[in-house]
Amino acid sequence: MGKSKELSMDLKKRIIDLNKSGKSLGAISKQLQVPRATVQTIVCKYKVHGTVSSLPRSGRKRKLSPAAERKLVRRVKSEPRITKKQICQELEAAGTQVSLSTVKRVLHLHGLRGCRARRKPLLQKRHLKARLKFAADHMDKDKTFWRKVLWSDETKIELFGHIAQQYVWRRKGEAFNPKNTMPTVKHGGGNIMLWGCFAANGTGALQRVNGIMKKEDYLHILQHNLKSSARRLGLGRSWVFQQDNDPKHTSKVVKEWLNQARIRVLEWPSQSPDLNPIENMWTVLKKQVHVRKPSNLTELHQFCQEEWSKIQPEACQKLVDGYQKRLIEVKMAKGHVTKY
Q: What are the residue boundaries of the Transposase Tc1-like domain, all occurrences included (predicted)?
């Protein structure tokens, strides 16, 4: 026997009105051609609940109990890279069969979403210690000090390319938890390599590196771009040069030249691109360049030069003036990677 059709709201209200006027259940049933049992059910429902609208139903029994859901959430938090399929297999092995959508719904209910794992440098204990020391040593430096720093770095800009994605389960604000990031190491290849520098007053030189950069190439770049960029940006005589700990940067020949040129170098913790604001500049540059869709490497280099020169000094100063926040983030993260 098929399921009977539910009465309309208008018909239910007529039954209640007739009942209030004093008519019996049998009379209402005959007048409206509705089974007496149905009339009685509607009248009783109205007397108890004060409405004839459909009440919330219990629905199907949940596949996972509250305790099982909490266990599932703990499992995902301890291993964010586990997939929904693997979770279903583990539950099935334990005697509970659920669908992928059920797992997804439970995780969403507890604020966990599938997100791409952030690619961040691999940090060892010595790196964490060095980052914390750097933050502690420079926490008391004010904006005046950081405005005198000439920030530098190299970057690789690709004409085409694809980066594999890794998804993790995490809550909002947990993107940079070590479990939710994807460690990366520097690797060769790519389309064009650029060396650039900037300070709070604006962008400095942007130099293309042909082929694989060696220490002699790096020294040549510094000799022809470093002091000229500092003068053009008005850094004065007490400016500080920032570079990372790449072997080319710390080579003997480069150190000797920096000493002879009387250029102060900022002591830098390894594996710390998040402490260098020029990384934010590279992000801006790459976005602007790829919007223009260069068709070859010559155009790519040309667009890079044009877009680098368009970056406003106000944007540079905003990055530098907020530098202390980076140090605070490093301290709060106990040396691990930060959102920068």
A: 70-140
